[in-house]
Fold these 4 entries.
Entry 1:
Amino acid sequence: MSVVHLRDSASDAHPTSRLTRTGDRQDTAARLLASAARKSYDPLIEVDWEAPIPEDRYGMTPEWCSLYGTELWDTMTEERRVTLTKHEAASIAGTGIWFELILMQMLVRDIYSHDPATPHVQFALTEIADECRHSTMFARSAQRFGIPSYRPKWWIRQSARAFKATATGSLAYGGMLFAEEILDMMQRDFMKDERVQPITRTVSKIHVLEEARHIKFAREETVRRVRNASWFTRARVRLVLGTTAYFVVTSLVNPQVYAAAGLDVDQAKRAAKSNRHYHDMLREGCSKTIELLDEVGLVGGPSRLLLRRAHIV
């Protein structure tokens, strides 16, 4: 397994004082471009895709599993736990691919009329290239484990067509944050956990490092785009953003992962639905996004009910 040595990327990830601080757009983009030049990886080269798959390693940190901490988890054999975590990791990756495809389209639309000579447009193009590699990397990791391509339900994918074709400004960048930061929180645990498959750890390291730049970019653009928004615009963005976050988070675990682990699907779904440990993990994973969006007035109203149902707040 190729080892990717990651330097501390915290300085690229978040503003250093108040959450809503933003720098000059072009200055920020120039710094992120410089970071990309220093720290970018090709997963087709950096990951040893032919390395053996240890039978006793989890597919992801088990504490992030939707059944961890339940009575059903306690009754499962270690073999079934390992199998379930592999399939849940693949399901999370599948949801990641789905939203990265949406993200890329939103970015292309956003920069369509901007000057390509500016650092802002050039970093957006760099991010799109990163997301192409990430999607390939996620797909390859599931394939290497011999797991089918899990994706959100058909009707969710079709409904998202309207979002990806029309979302702009703070709605587009706020939606990016929900998908990017929850995955970032998970993978920061995956990459450090020696109980986890080496491929998962290396994939997570690559994604965490490069995603830090994307999160910085999305956070500043979200704040910048909503700064002069009207009350009506903020209310509309809150509602659509809450709906988007709900479907992203509730699509992370495809119910078919339970069947793949030899579990009764209905029983497992009930256990996951009432699993307070998993809900707490989701809430923690989304906390930075919620904190930022709440500060700029993009949390509240009817959307809060959806965020509660998804265990985000």
Entry 2:
Amino acid sequence: MTYDRLVCANCASPVSEGRCRVCRASRERLQQQEGFLGGLSPVALIALLILLVAALALVAHQTV
């Protein structure tokens, strides 16, 4: 999840702006949770998965 569209329940401003301490804490927590593929969009992850399956099918076809 990205924090650029989240709205803070404490101050009703976007979390990405970090206007209050709750926003800043949430923004920091979300930034720390971004992992290896955390910054990719779901469409990019699906495309990567399709490419991986296609590569595996090609390798399987070559070995037969």
Entry 3:
Amino acid sequence: MRARLRLPMLTVSYRTPVRTFSLSHHLNAANQIYSSVRQPDNFHTYQLLSSSSRTPLITLWTTSWCSTCHVVAPLIKSAIESGVGEAEGGVGYCEVEYDAPDVMSSSLGMDFMITSIPTLFSFDAGEAQISTKITDGRKLADRSFLEEWIRNEARRHGGRGGGGGGPGILGGLFGSWK
């Protein structure tokens, strides 16, 4: 005959924390500042990181000989480091050294119609935002203008929009002109 062991009934009660699951973008994301781009592969990696985090990638296209770039680059980086755009969803930022040998020998600048240095240019979900591209050095040196521009770009948070070409046949095919 088998002996039965009787144990007192043990009841364990605990509360599991309520966790929510959301596919929507979490606002107040921290801005991300990447190293300068000297090779096209780095640029494409930053685009992918930006797309996966649903934050726009802000790029400043510079050259080593551009005096305006030496004024504008620290101003833009300072604004992003200080948190401009984080309340709207955050941004990624990198400088593209357009005169770096690997960048110059690639078609990277031509792909995005970089015709002036410096150029401030945004990408959202990997899509170039042609309509918000800034090439005017006076605007780029105006901190309040830059902060508003960064906030507007951050508001996209992976939703695209505002990109596409200019007026004309190709602009009509690839997006609307604002």
Entry 4:
Amino acid sequence: MNDEFAGDSSQWAFGTGFEDPLAGVDTTVPPGVDAAELAAYCLMLGDDALIMSQRLAEWCSRAPDLEEDIALANMALDLLGQARLLLTRAAAADPGVVPALPEGSPVPAEDALAYFRDAEQFRNVRLAEVENGDFAHVVVRLLLFSVARLALLGRLRTSPDQVLAAVAAKGV
């Protein structure tokens, strides 16, 4: 067994070396912003990104051409990064949204939100969860999703919540 895992054998499932993605960032909810509403909004955006990321990742090694395969994988990774930031922000804004886990669980809040909620607790747009079918349908779905998300994130760059504004700016 690797010495890196000697102290906590459960860590192998979650990887190692992952820091809090918002470490060092002021996550105080700004005055006049409702923490529960901010958390709900971040969950919605994070769930959109998480589900669409997984749908795109299903095409890994299955796209018609290598370039398309790599492009879809990169877009999936970008969306997964957005999901991680947004789910972490949701948990920081309102810790009550994080599913209860056993005492002392090493699972970070964003992973608890991604893996330990029931399907009906996800708040993603239905477009993100449509089953993959024909490659052309996937490309059209991605285009519609991307155009809508670009418009939404463009408006969120001026959010009073600096964390959400920064995530939106990076997403644009």
